[in-house]
Amino acid sequence: MDKNWYVYVPKSSGVPWSPFPVGYTVGQAVIRNEDAAAFYARMESVINGRFLLTIYDQGYSTVAMPYQTILRVAKIVTAVCALVELAVVILFGFLFIYRQRETSETMLMLGTKKVQVCEYFLCSAGVISLAATAAGSIAGYWLHDSIIALVVKTAGHYQLIDSRYSNGNLTISRLLEFAPELKWQLFLAVGAAVFLFACISCLAFTLSTFLHNRPSQKTPWGPKKEHRTSHLRGRSLKYALLSILRGGARSTVVPILAITVVIFFGQLSSTALRYQEQLDSVYDNTTITGYYTDINGKQIGNLVVDAYDVGSLYRSGKIKKLFASISEPYYYLGVSKLVDGTELHLDPLFVPPAFGLESLEEEFQRRPHLTATNNIRNAPEFYYSNVITMTFLEGYDESILNVSPDDKRVNSCLIPTSLMREHNIVLGDTLRVALDHYYTSPQYERPVFRDVDLLVVGSYEKQGSEDTIYAPLSLLFPTELIWDDGKVIEGAPSSTFDTGYSFTPKQEYQLRKYSLNSANFTIIDSRTLVAIKDYFTDYGYSEVNKVSSVRQFVVLNDVSFNNAVASIKQQIRYINTLYPFLYLLVGIISIVVSYLLVISRKKEFATMRGLGATRVRTFFSFFWEQGILCVLGAGIGLLGWKLIIGTPTTLHLMLIAGFLVCYSIGCAVSIMIMNHTNVLTILLDRD
Amino acid sequence: MNILELHDVTYSYNSKYQKVEAIKHIDCSFEQGKVYAIIGKSGSGKSTLLSLLAGLDLPASGKILFKGEPINSMDLAKYRRECAAMIYQSFRLFPLLTVSENITYPMELRGFKGDQARLRARELAARVALPESAIDRFPNMLSGGEQQRVGIARAMSMDTMLLLADEPTGNLDEENSCNIIDILVDLAHKDGYCVIIATHDLGILPKMDVVFHMNSGVIHQETRC
After folding, report:
1. Interchain proximity B135–A229, CB inside 8 Å
2. Pairwise CB contact (< 8 Å): B138 & A226
3. B96: nearest CB among A233, A243, A617
4. Which of A352, A360, A388, A355 is nearest to A373 (CA)?
């Protein structure tokens, strides 16, 4: 432990963070980023419970998190854009080439070589796609700065963490510059790639026209086998059912779309729900503690904390547990009463004359302390320990430290086993210690130091160098001033301790006379973290290295919580931003698909109308069909989801309902459009 | 007795860029029990005129009277259902309905019971010489001539006295064309239908009672014996 190393490690899931904000540095190491997890695992197995391994990354991870999200979003957006681009290129080939297949067929019939046909189509399509890709590349090059600036601005919003009073401030924070430079070659390459794909698409469609090297021979579409004739009772519904049953592949399009949408929405909603559950879980399962400290955030004991400030915090209703300690140096006088009840005579500690008193006062300052606390585990000596070895006299436990001042057990104590061995003390003995207050004793008619008898009800293995004696807080502090009945209880403050409750002037005067040596607390709910920070700010509490109107420094152990919440909230925010677009996209797709499917039936529709079917009849003939297919697909998808994944969430069901509504609206509008189309023009169209 | 009368009928197609006057001030009439042919070059307005007679649209001006009643005052869907039956060059059969179902469709629109309609469909199929085996087949399993017979049977199932045939033999070979025309002529002469055929096929003209010649939306009658 004689080496000084520095450790710079980015935060990752493989590297746990220390929950402890301060401690005693016994060594530092610089390790490579990629070895951080292995290093932590190796060290964790060899260090014991009294040592903590803390990994600092100089604040880079906090800043990097939003950029990691943006990188992830960028990858998704790039993939989606690539797919859309591919679809557009294929559509371009279809519209520009395949729709002109008759031209190709005619050219071939007239003896044109296939190469020349390809040249014809590729040249014409190439000019258009070259112009389009060039324009896109130039626009992208000129606009990318603005887009990146927008991304950086968005990222800035993502890294808002309330770091007031956080133990995260005890580490170093750095700013990460994000100013990527995209070269013109990138845009040129993307443009060239799109142009190439467009040419390939056009070439593929041109080649496909060669498969029909004579004028199109259209065969009526329909089932390939005979079918029992139906009576067609049931009107439009029956027609719809027959169309569904005999539609073959056409009848599978909508159910497949609906099943895909159900799965897609299921994924989206379960992802959203999972993050929300994770967030709730973090809120529910996180206990946030805080403590009073010094200006550097290093000390948790030997402080001078105004009891009034601590009392006010407790009565603010924002904390549920308050642990405090108040210490005085003691002078061990001896055992005044043995466990068997035998009383032993002990002289008091007499106050010596002038210079002797001064020496004795100095001696007192070097003496161990009698610490009155309501929780030994939160005393400075044990604040960072997970295990405390304690032994109690029968009928006693740690709760002895919580007794009220008027309880006869207030003069109980826990002493270190080392002290017991040194003075042959056993549990049940009563020992006497002198405190640093003197008065004139009527019995001895001379000044003596005040002494106090303490029944030894427990012992502990000390973890510091000092033989600290732990006694109930009420021994040295009027706990009734803060707690209801003076009994220092755990749990939520009484209902009268809501925000706004203040001490009377007398109570305040009494409290101001006391200074606590340490105080730490647990906030009522992790959801109220911001509220308690607001309280600290309003009260004027100081942050570490940042003095405010009240020179009391508090730290909240919330860095891990903040990181976890920020990470999850970031995902939720990302979901909340991106998902609505995906929902909208699915809605648009459903409307477009319904329109295309309905409009592709216009000849059937026109025949119906030509035979005298009413608009209502034609409407429902198609609407029932599309509606049944859509509901059927959604039903199958939902059933499959329930059987394989589990019960769908409310959001999932709502999204599916939204899809059904969009699809239905698309169908209804498409049919209505078709219903208002001039039947004559459709029917006179020669196949 | 005139079943249809046209008085100063005009019709035009309006597109975004131009207006095409397809029918120009036509006055003519049609009687029951006769076969009419409307001949003319492509784009002369034959099909448009036939569609107007079928009630697929209303004329821009003028009147079409069905049994003395103007069709623009009638429910056009009802008119198509009950007054005029159309036969198309491209057959216009429902691809997912069997031959029987295609024939019964108009009857079902008019409220015929299933069994009753099916029975009648079989009769009509026999009437247009469709083989019995074709009754449960789908249109894509039939030849062009058979599909057109289904179209005629379907038109007959509507029980209207007005049959409008738009190029009924346009997609058929000579033998099938001849058979189809014979069926239509029989329907006029034996059953009292008014049959109006728009056609390019001059070979069928000898079988027609009245021939109208159309040119650029204007109609001229050639009287036949």
Report:
1. yes
2. yes
3. A243
4. A388
What share of chain A has pLDDT > 70, as a percent?
83
Asked whether residue A588 falls in the same domain as residue A680, the answer is yes
pTM (predicted TM-score)? 0.66
**Residue B44 contacts A, CB cutoff 8 Å:** no
Partner-chain residue, chosen from A230, A609, A679, that has the shortest CB–CB distance to B101: A230
- Count up the domains in chain A and report the number: 2
- Identify whether residues A381 and A267 lie together within a single domain: no
Quick one: pLDDT at residue B32?
92
CB atoms within 10 A of CB A674: 22
Tell me whether residues B109 and A613 touch, CB distance under 8 A: yes
Min Cα separation B225/chain A (Å): 31
- Is A227 or B206 the better-scoring residue by pLDDT? B206
Co-location of A503 and A605 in the same domain:
no
User: How many of the other CB atoms lie within 10 Å of CB of A199?
Assistant: 17
pLDDT tens digits for A294-314?
Answer: 888 888 888 889 999 988 888
**Which among B77, B95, B138 is the nearest to A612, CB-wise?**
B77
- Nearest chain A alpha carbon to B49: A680
Top mean pLDDT of A174-183, A266-275, B58-67 is at B58-67
> In this structure, are A499 and A596 located in the same domain?
no
Residue A70 pLDDT:
66
Residue B159 exposure: Cα atoms within 13 Å on the Cβ side: 14
Cβ <8 Å between B96 and A229: no
**Residue B207 C-alpha, separation from nearest chain A C-alpha, in angstroms:** 25
Rounded to whole angstroms, the maximal C-alpha distance in chain B is 51
Residues A451-466, mean pLDDT to the nearest whole number: 88
A238 lies in the same domain as A363: no
Q: What is the DSSP string of A133-174?
A: HHHHHHHHHHHHHHHHHHHHHHHHHHT----TTBGGGGS---
Q: What is the pLDDT of residues A66-118, one digit of tens each?
A: 566 667 767 777 877 787 788 788 878 877 887 777 788 778 877 788 888 88
pLDDT-derived band at A256, boundaries 50, 70, 90: very high
CA distance linking residue A590 with residue A570, whole number of Å: 30
CB count, 10 Å around CB of B118? 21
CB-based contact, A686 to chain B, within 8 Å: yes
Q: Partners of A330 in the beta sheet?
A: A435
Chain-centroid distance, C-alpha A517: 36
Q: Are residues A240 and A353 in the same domain?
A: no
| Size of chain B, expressed as the number of residues it contains | 225
Separation between Cα atoms, residue B11 and residue A637, nearest integer Å: 52
A471 and A350 co-located in one domain: yes
Any CB–CB contact under 8 A between A247 and chain B? yes
Q: Report the C-alpha gap between A454 and A413 in whole angstroms.
A: 6
Kind plus residue range of the DSSP H or E element containing A188: helix A184-209
B82 touches chain A (CB under 8 A): yes
pLDDT digits (tens, 9 = 90+) for A236-253: 888 888 889 888 888 998
In this structure, the answer to whether residues A420 and A493 fall within a common structural domain is: yes
Per the structure, the complete domain to which residue A594 belongs is given by 233-286+577-687
Select the more confidently predicted residue: A277 or A45. Answer: A277
